[in-house]
Sequence to fold (289 residues):
Amino acid sequence: MIVSIIGLGLIGGSLALDLRSNGFASRLIGVDLKAEHQDQAIELGLVDEILSWEEACKVADILILTVPVSAILKQLPIALDLIKEDALVMDMGSTKSEIRQSISDHPKRNRAVLAHPMAGTEYSGPKAAIHNLFHRKVAIICDPKESDKDALELAERLLKSLFMRIIYMDAQEHDVHAAYVSHVSHISSFVLALTVLEKEKSEANIFNMASGGFASTVRLAKSSPKMWRDVYEQNADNLIDVLEIYIKKMQGFKALIESGEFDKTAELMEEANEIGRILKETPHLMKYS
Fold:
């Protein structure tokens, strides 16, 4: 099984590590725009060789796109033009509606499977790759009926080889849920970091007083701006809906604090505690990113 991975960052590199160790791929080919990333991927043993984008598409049994979603929009239709007749193309972008639309009329649409592994860290680049990043996490496959049966089964085999749990939904539904559960949490982290940086001019105070709670809340602010800029652009309408609710909740807390109604803030916090029960019952979400 020849697997070509376009984009050798956290997701692509971690995929390569596990697909090699579990024996799913007999040959791993990498593609990355940055020469530094190419060299690192070879040095770290993530891939067997680096090829051009076009050549990697042509020789692959499975072609996986793990690049920013704006690049997937451009690359996916061309990749379908270049692949072998029976090859599979998987994208692993964090949004799906525009990507689905970009290939809706493509004659080889049925060779594509739109997937989103719900796993990640705040780090990027080949050196961020880790074993078992996907272990026991959820993988979403969107619009499975639009893919050939054999292509879908091959994609499922790959994801299950990583010990992922697969769920299915349509692209629009995916983007709505992703906005609420993933995308807005990154905005919250970015905004908190900007707030602290604006008001706390002393780096020493930030370092000395930032507890584990602050560190965990602001962790996502270290994520790739390029990646998330593209996600926000493609999922803007859903994000606006989420942010309107989020801002309303924040304003509600502010009003209660201003009026000294701290018992009511406690009631809201008790209501929010319910999320702990949900996460406890769904362990895969505890490391959701």
Summary: The longest strand covers residues 112-117. The mean pLDDT is 91. The two ends are 29 Å apart (CA to CA). The CA atoms of residues 152 and 279 lie 29 Å apart.
